[in-house]
Amino acid sequence: MKLLIIIQHPFALWNAPQWLGERIHRDFPQIEVDQRNTYKNVEDHIRDAEIFFGWSLRGEQVRTAKKLRWIHSTAAAVHQLMSPELLLSDIIVTNARSVHGPVVAEHAIGLMFALAKRLPAAVRYQQQQVWAQEQVSCQHPHPTELAGSILGLIGYGAIGSEVARSAAALGMRVLVARLHPQKDSGVKQDVETFALDRLDDVISQSDFLVLAAPLTEKTRHIINTERLARMKPEGYVINVARGALIDEAALTEALRNGRIGGAALDVFDQEPLPAGSPLWELDNLLITPHTAATTDKMWERHYALIKENLRRYLAGEPLLGLVDKQVGY
């Protein structure tokens, strides 16, 4: 049985460490592990692979992989895998949502605190050596409290459910808009759940709007000019999911005009964010460079999931993090 690992990305931390394949082979000596850091000649290497670990695979590569039975994405998003060839195949797909969800949720909560307490403004004044007590406290939007505020969540998967749990513990009222409001996520907490067709109601009530949904055709640009206009003037938008969930031109306009209180983005339509993007110039926008999931423990968390799923695969048991290929998450 052959396992092929190819994870190639310009950002070094997202690439699999060399010890990954070595540790897999040590724990599962019956598996032949082929770990590579480039897609060069991938067809030659995937031809006899039964398992593939990586976040991208083209349709022609899927066609070549006659023995392929399981793909595991080390990302939470799987849209880069969803070729027609894969959708029509019997290949099962899993993702790393349980690896990234809790950590990305921590980041979202951190961004909410930063916006609520106007920390970006305080940092800017610090760099100017200005004691800006009056400016930070009295300029719009004013510092606010998370306790008693209303959190609107779009998406209630691994990220959204953790954000909801933490927000509820902080005393926030949590409103969730999701595709399947009746679905049980296994999280025991008090949240108010709405179908996506009630999203405008959720947005109009929210002090903080957190995007934690997968990117599909239904969610692309789900936050647009019309929905930004429904937000409270002091409301904040936070995106820790995928950049294309937001119409960036519409958000830029809303922030420039002070239509909403501010925003925090960890993800963007184009990454790295181009130097000429107008988003860089907005004082009421907090930018983090797609680092919500990156910590020094990330690959250890990956390995815990990989090890358990390999054990399950060899034992013929259901895998964790199964993806519904037809809905895209």
Write up what this structure looks like.
The mean pLDDT is 95. The chain has two domains: 114 residues, Rossmann fold (3-Layer(aba) Sandwich), CATH 3.40.50; 188 residues, NAD(P)-binding Rossmann-like Domain (Rossmann fold). It is built from twelve helices and twelve strands. The longest helix has 20 residues. It has 329 residues and is an alpha/beta fold. The two termini are 27 Å apart.
Topology of this protein?
Elements: E1 2-6, H1 19-27, E2 32-36, H2 42-46, E3 51-53, H3 59-64, E4 70-72, H4 84-87, E5 92-94, H5 97-116, H6 119-127, H7 133-138, E6 150-154, H8 158-169, E7 173-178, E8 192-195, H9 199-205, E9 208-211, H10 225-229, E10 236-239, H11 248-256, E11 262-265, E12 285-287, H12 298-315
Parallel strand pairs: 1-2, 1-3, 3-4, 4-5, 6-7, 6-9, 7-8, 9-10, 10-11, 11-12
SSE run: EHEHEHEHEHHHEHEEHEHEHEEH
**So, the CATH homologous superfamily of the largest domain?**
NAD(P)-binding Rossmann-like Domain
Percent helix, as a range, is 25-40%
For the largest sheet, list the strands in their spatial order: 8-7-6-9-10-11-12
Structural class: alpha/beta
